[in-house]
Amino acid sequence: MGQPNGEFELIARLRERLPGTGARLLVGSGDDAAVAVAGGATATSVDAVVDGVHFRLDGGFEPEDVGAKALATALSDLAAMGAEPGEAYVVLGVPPAAGEAELLRIADGLAEVATATGTAVAGGDVVRSPVLWLALTVVGHAPRPELLVTRAGAEAGDVLVLSGELGGAAAGLLLLERPALADVVAAATAANLRQRQLRPTPRLRAGAALAAAGARAMIDLSDGLAADAGHVAARSGVALAIDAAAIPLAKGVAELAAASGQDPLELAVSGGEDYELLAAIPPDRLGEAATRIGDAAETSLTVIGEVTRGGAVEIRLPGGGTLTSAGFDQLAPRPGGPAAAGP
Description:
Layout lengths: L6 H11 L7 E3 L7 E2 L4 E10 L12 H19 L2 E11 L5 H18 L2 E9 L4 E10 L16 E5 L4 H10 L9 H12 L5 H9 L4 E4 L4 H12 L2 E5 L9 H8 L3 H7 L6 E5 L4 H11 L4 E8 L4 E4 L5 E2 L20
C-alpha cells in the first residue's frame, strides 16, 4: 500500500481503525464537531509528539509505538488530575514520504491504547507536514470539580508519594540508542526497559485512587522528578524535600547506568518520560491511599519525601548534600540536533 489517495480517503481509513464510541459521546468523528453529554467537571489537556524530538522511526520505534505513545502520554495528564478518560481528538501531520500503511499502523497503536483505557477517538484531522507529528487533545471527566486534583494544593506537612519506579524510560532510550548495552542485563529486563520508552502506561487507575484518597496535589512525571516536583512547589507555594535513597529505581537502571558511565540517580530524577505520578497527601490519608492503590492493582506506592515551608525542591543525598538537576526542557539548546526524549 503506497501513498494515500487523498485526505478524505485517508481520514476514512483511519476512522475505520479507531474506537469512536463512548458513554458520553452523542456525535463522533465524521461530523463538523463532536457532541458529548456535559455533566460534572471536565479536564482537558493538549499534547504533541514530533519525529526526531519525542520518537525516532529510524531509531527503534515502530509506527504502532508512535500512536500508542502519543495517546498514552496525553492521557497521563488526565491521570494526574484523577479524571476518567472520555474523548480524544487527534491531528496527524503527514510528511511526503509517509505511506498509507505506515499511517494506518500509527492508528492501530492509537486504537490499542484507546480501547484499553475506554477512550473514544471523537474527531481529528490530517495535514501535510515536513515531518511526522501528532497533536492530541484529550478530555476527561469527574462527577464534581472538587474531585479533580491540581498541582496547586500541597500543604506543609503533607507526605510525598510516588507511583511505580523511575529511570526505566531513560534506560530504555539508552538501549535503543546503544543496543550493545543490553548485554549487561537479562533479556527480559532489557525488553521491559525498552517498552517503558516505547509504550509508557498512563496511571489512570492510580490517579483515580490517589484522588479518592485525598491527594492535595498531583503531577505526572514527564520531564523528570526534579523538574516536575518543581512545578508542584511553584504552584503550591511550598518546598518539597525528597529523600534520594527512597526513590525506587526500575530493574536494570543501575546496571545500565554503570555500563554507560552515568549516575543511576540522575537517570531517575532527570531522565523523564516515566509518566509515574507524584502526589502530596495528608499523613492521615496515607493508609487509605496505599489500600486504594493496592486495589487498583496497577502499580506500587512509595513514600519519598515531605512537603515543607519554603519554595524549592531539595533532593537529599544519603551521605549529605543535595542533588541539583534541571530535568528535560523542550526549548533548551542541544548540541547535535533534537533530543529523542521529552515529555
